[in-house]
Amino acid sequence: MTVVTARDLLNDPAFHGYRLLGGASGLDHVVRNAAQIQTGADLSRIAPGSVGVTDLGDRAGVSAQHLVEVFCRRLHGRGGRMLVIVGNVEAATQSTIRLADRFGLPLVAVAPTSIPASAAALTARLLGLVQQPELLYARAMAGVVSKLVTADTLERVVAIAAEALRGTAAVVAAEGRIVSGGLRWATPEQVTRHATITTERLPDHAWASCPVPGSGHRLWLVAETADGGPAWQEAARAVTQTAAVAAGAWVAHDRLRQERDRARLAGLLTELLQLEGAPVIPEHVARRAARAGIVLDGWHVGVHLTWGYGGEQTSADLTPQLTSALEEEGFALPVFERADGWSSWVTSPERPSEQEVGLLAARLRKVLAWFNAAYAENRSFVPLAAGVGRPATGPAAVAATLGQAHQAALTAASDGPGVVEHIDDVGPEQLMWRWFTTEAFREQAARLLAPVLAAPDSGMLLRTLDAYLTCGSSPGETAKAIGLHRNTVTQRITVLERLLGGPVASLDRLALHLACRSLTAGASRTPGGGHPAPARTPHL
User: Which ranges carry the PucR C-terminal helix-turn-helix domain (predicted)?
Assistant: First the structure.
């Protein structure tokens, strides 16, 4: 059976705007009765565990102050649990307040404008709540389901839970972010370590939480209040569970909407990337862009954000958070999910100056610094870097500037987290390095040189083949370059030609050389993710 404490009663609307004058240490005592007291005779009949309610009426001055102190002493002596003064707050002197603190007897003042307004009506209300604790939240809980059925936003779901439990509420994400609503006392760290419905009473507040179904333990619905005893905690378990289900339905609906938006944006981006060489933007593409709120006229500067070579994460999981971070920094951008990150562009009516493009890159660095730091403790998160393309206009502008931004972003990612590179600051050697160390090229290189890679001394043979092709297929020059005897080089080339199925001169030397460079370069990548200085250009 649910018990009711003084703290629970103070959470009832009848105590709206109350003042706790003293005796806070007794708020968690169980209340079992309520009685109106106007005289000493009333106190002699009061049962232990009762709340005493008094209305001093027109009494003022010493008479009222004396009565309140007497009521406080005698109510404590009878095992009372709380003294409520309707109106006339001045009747409680400092000595009476100190007395209430010493007794641990909550001394509460209620304005006459509260509902119910009279001491008799308030006493009747309290007596009903003590005898039937479920009435404390029955009316609020009865309306929760009907209200949640019509809740069309997550914010509305949270507001309904907060209203029902007469406190504050929020939806919290696993990484500690407040998704909706707000909390005054409970911390996200307290909430997210619990995998089931949880309630807890702490010295200054009570809170309850429930994981949101369908979120994969990524979201929790939380409610809290200052005045939450056992009755509130029991009600909070029911309300948070019901509201969490509604939040889960909203999450599923929002996820479906996001998937539709992603599909529309992905289709639009595909068409824009295929416009290279087109004299005009096709009408159906222009209409799709307009429906998505994307401007195609003017000058575009491409931006690509990536986790770079070897990263494994899904852009869709972070798109909302990244979009919000960009918006915080003033970027009103369409964000398109790509296989290795996100692409977007900034549009302006006039060609942006070099200084304006530089400022754009600086703002991007600020976004990445915050974003990488915010998710640093997430073990599955790979830090981001970014690239910026050149300003471009015309039907093929988006494809051109995004291609440049993507190239610059891959170079930036190889230099470290948070780096932002402009395409004009990326040299041809860096671009070549990024090209032939991509996973796709390395896979092709591995297929081409599979017989060599299967040999016991594959590393030695690859280095010899790379040097041999770099030195124009000269055994003598190759011997000098790698510090071997000419005969040793010749012997190794003989082995290589046997493995490759013919003389090196009769094979595709450029393909062989790039394949060698890709595999040997990949093996020599620095542990920090950077790249060594570019080697000599292949000698064709």
Answer: 461-517
